[in-house]
Amino acid sequence: MRKSLIKVADGANGQERSCCCGPGYRSKGFTLMEVLVALCILSVICVILGPLLSTGLVWIDGAGQESRAAFLAFSLLEAVRANPPQVKGFLQLEAEELGVKIEEGWEAKVYLLPCDDLNRLLKVRAEVKYDSVSKEKVVIHTMIRQK
């Protein structure tokens, strides 16, 4: 884009000088209208993305709780696998009985049930309830061999 220069006569010297104003000339700064439009667009974007950001943070927190609960359930299974009890019938164990610490407000249980005639195999179910409000829980099933 070409700048248009207007020739202005200087009264004192009689010389002409260039003036940078007129049609087609743009200054190097922003106008007030451009700044206001940019602020409006930015505020609309913030209004739209604000709830998405807070929802995302809630999901991240829920995923963190779920992964901690899954880790706790695997810890319960490993505690049972390391020292399997002799079970003749259905048996329910709390996490504290297995020496596994749990977070406050959480519930952790292990259910054991013999699954063959010789009582050599046990069905093991580890259950961790990690959200008291929505009753969210992680359940892991496996089988282990009794000693």
Short summary of the structure?
With 147 residues, the chain is an alpha+beta fold.
Question: Overview of this structure, please?
Answer:
By secondary structure, this protein is an alpha+beta fold. It has one domain. The chain is built from one helix and six strands. Strand 4 and strand 5 form a beta hairpin. The chain is rod-shaped.
Which features does this protein show?
147 residues; alpha+beta; 4-stranded antiparallel β-sheet; two-stranded antiparallel sheet
Total of domains: 1
Give the CA-CA distance, first to last residue.
88 Å
Q: Residue share in helices?
A: 25-40%
Percent of residues in beta strands? 25-35%
Sheet with the most strands: spatial strand order: 3-4-5-6
Order of helices and strands: EEHEEEE
Mean pLDDT: 83
Number of strands: 6
Structural class: alpha+beta
Unreliable parts: none
Number of helices in the DSSP assignment: 1
The radius of gyration computed from the alpha-carbon positions, rounded to a whole number of angstroms, is 37 Å
